[in-house]
Amino acid sequence: EPEVTQTPSHQVTQMGQEVILRCVPISNHLYFYWYRQILGQKVEFLVSFYNNEISEKSEIFDDQFSVERPDGSNFTLKIRSTKLEDSAMYFCASSNSPSRLAHNEQFFGPGTRLTVL
Amino acid sequence: AQTVTQSQPEMSVQEAETVTLSCTYDTSESDYYLFWYKQPPSRQMILVIRQEAYKQQNATENRFSVNFQKAAKSFSLKISDSQLGDAAMYFCAYSSSGSARQLTFGSGTQLTVLP
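^ Those are the sequences you sent over. The predicted structure of the assembly is below.
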């Protein structure tokens, strides 16, 4: 069964460093998302991406964040200068189509745990 | 903006018994989707069940069913014949049917299944 994959599973970085989190969405999916979950808290939407551009972003997704689909398969989230409060689990998700038939089901990857020291 | 509220931070159920997890939401939209996701200790997000707001019939998936009350903006999850593997954090989530498809999650309910 197709699945969303994410690498690495755990990333440790020093404050101020840049990190890139990678995701490979399901191959025929068109909509891509990043969410984050600070330990013990709810899952929060960061950004959605469609047709090679950002379609929606939340207040969390400030200038320190960027997303890219560099090669038609990978979908990346870059944090330019990490802060302690960026420590969280980051989930990538993808969905097929906005049509009712697809029910807008988003398939989640296993997450990348980011630890900023 | 839409909000999703789960008022039960923790719930427990005896194995083989039935448990209901509550969720309420606030929206001004008439067409939307509602979901329940399960997050086991591995922290993987797994879709349990979904409901389209335009459908009056409550969704069911094997032992999982929902009670969708659109007027009350309530969307509860019933787990029948609870199993040890059902132990997890359960998140209720909302999605617009419009172009903004992101999920808005509740704060979660930690379900413990007692043997």
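The longest strand of chain B covers residues 88-96. Residues 69 and 75 of chain B are 6 Å apart (CA to CA).

Shout if you want it in another format.
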